[in-house]
Each structure stands twice: as C-alpha cells, then as structure tokens.
Amino acid sequence: MKLPTPSRRVRLVLSILFLLFSLVFYWWAVGSPMPTPGLAHRAALLSHGLTPGPVEAQGEIHFQEITRSPDSSEGSRWLVSRQEDGWAVTVHPRAGLFWSQSYSKVHLLTPSEDTPLMTAHLQYATDYLWEEGISENPFDDGDWYWEWVTLAVCTLPDVARIELYQGWYNSIDANGLSPRDWLLEHGSVSDCTRLSPDSPFWLCQQVWNPGDGATATLARAYDAQGNLLCEWCSYDG
User: Fold this and answer.
1) Which of 169, 163, 202 is nearest to 183 (CA)?
2) What residues pair up with 152 in beta bridges, in sequence order?
3) Integer distance in angstroms from the first to the last C-alpha of the chain?
4) Tens place of pLDDT per residue across the chain (237 aa)
5) How far is residue 196's CA from residue 65's CA, in Å, rounded to a whole number?
6) What is the C-alpha R_g of the chain?
7) Which residues have a Cβ under 8 Å from the Cβ of 228 and sit 6 or more positions away?
8) CA-CA distance, 153 to 22, in Å (whole number)?
9) Are 170 and 176 in contact (CB under 8 A)?
10) Quick check: helix, strand or coil at residue 114?
11) Where are the alpha helices (DSSP H) in the chain?
C-alpha cells in the first residue's frame, strides 16, 4: 500500500519546525546566551538563586598590555547590581551576537563596618612574552605574563586612593612571609581608578609579575592626606 505524499504546505511547516528546533537546541547547547549584557546578568543571578537588583555600575574589558591572548575575554562586559547589604558582580564574554551567561561566576561583595574594602577579579588575559638575554637556553627566553582587571569597592566616605598589590603567592617559596607581607615586598602594585567622584567602585588593571602559586590580593585605602584607612587581603590557596 502506497502511503500518501505530504502536501507542499505540510512539508514547509515541518521544515520550519525542524529549523526552529535546531536553533533552540543550538542556543541551549552553547549556554543559553542572551541578547544583551543586562539580560545575561539577570539570568546569571537567577541561576544562583539571587534576586536581580538595579544595575549600579558596568563596563567593557579591554586589555592594554597583553593583546594577543588566545582566550575570548576581550570585549567582555561586567555588571554590578545591588543585593540587599552588598553587590553582585558578573562578567559576560561575547557569544557571537549574544552574551554568554552559562557558568557565570557571581562575585558577592558585602562590605561591612569591620570590612569596608573588598575586591573581585573580573577577567584576565595571558600570553608568553619573549625577552632576549634572560636565559642561556634559546627556547626559554621569556615567561608567562597575566594581565588582570580587578574591581574594588570601598564604603568609607573619606577614601581618596586605593592601592592594589597582586601576585602569585607560594608558601613554600615565601620564606615564611604571610600573603600580605609577601605582596608588599614582591607583588605587582598599581593605583585604582574611581568610576565616578561619588562611586564606591574602583577599577584596577595591571600585569602581574611571573610566578607560581595561588592568586593573592592586598587592597589598601588611603585618605586625601595619605593616611592608611584600612586594608583587605585575600588568598585563594
């Protein structure tokens, strides 16, 4: 028995449905990217059980020193939204014409009276940079360098400058120094830039000295006279 051949209209409808299904499956497979960074930020917060609040700061990441990094973090967008007693920070790389939110890490910054200063790493780029004459081995004339973009938040009203020390801390090679003391002696140091005159957010971009270990950060806040107001140290080891 010969089965009836579907009409042209039925074949067209089936083709359209198959195309739509393929597009939805592809969208899901690449991490459900969103058409705007704001929607990607909102989706990331909801996936972590957080209630999206108003966005209070945002920006685009452009690396200054390491521009040949093979990763896709160049041009990523970062957003900060209010969360009750603090802020939630997310970073969203490009995903074609959309913005990725899959596996987005949410940094929760909750400064307090005892801890008014905190930081969060936003994104990094890395590359092997060659330097002639640093080694007798012609295949070892260089090292891996990392450029990091870091966000700091400080709620002290008198803060006028934030200084950031960062680097790779290894307790075995630190000669007994704590992460804080090691960073003061060997860390890469830069001043942060305030996003606006009254903003609690500061941005820092620096290339770290080469090394092995876990990420360590020391932030120090000063008033207009150069007096140290507070400091905050973190170590991911």
Assistant:
1) 169
2) 119, 202
3) 72
4) 565 666 777 666 666 665 565 544 444 444 567 788 999 999 889 988 998 899 999 999 988 877 665 555 778 899 999 998 899 999 998 877 788 875 568 999 999 999 999 999 998 888 777 665 444 445 556 677 888 999 999 999 999 999 999 999 988 888 889 999 999 999 999 999 999 999 999 999 998 877 788 899 999 999 999 999 999 999 986
5) 24
6) 23
7) 220, 221, 222
8) 43
9) no
10) coil
11) 8-29, 37-47, 179-186
* The residue to which tokens 């140091």 are assigned: 189
Amino acid identity for residue 234 in this structure: S
- Which residue is listed with tokens 């200054």? 64
Core vs surface per residue 162-194: b (16+ CB within 10 A) or e:
bbbbbbbbeeeebeeeebbebbbebbbebebeb
pTM given for the model = 0.81
